Amino acid sequence: MKKWKAALAILGALIVVCAAFALYLWFKNPDPVRPAAIDNPTGFVQAQGANIYDGDGKLLQLRGVNLGNWLVQENYMSVTDVGDFDTGVFTEARALAAMKANPNLTDAQIEELYHIRAQAYMTEEDFARIAGLGLNCVRLNFGWWTFTTDGETPREDAFRYVDWALDMCDKYELYAVLDNHGAMGSQNQDQHSGDDSQFHLYDGEENRRMTVDLWKLLAERYRDRTCVAGYDLLNECRRAPGRYGGRINTDFYDELYRAVRSVDPNHMIFIGYFTFPIHGGRVSHYNWENVCLTYHIYNRTPFSQITCLNFIKALHNFMGSDMPVYIGEFNAWTEEQDWLDTLDWFDAQGWSWSSWAYKTNSWSYLSGENSEWSRDARMRNWGVYELYMEPVDLSTATFEEIRTAYLQSATENAKPSLVHEVYNERLAQTAPN
Question: Does residue 274 lie in a domain region?
Answer without folding.
Answer: yes
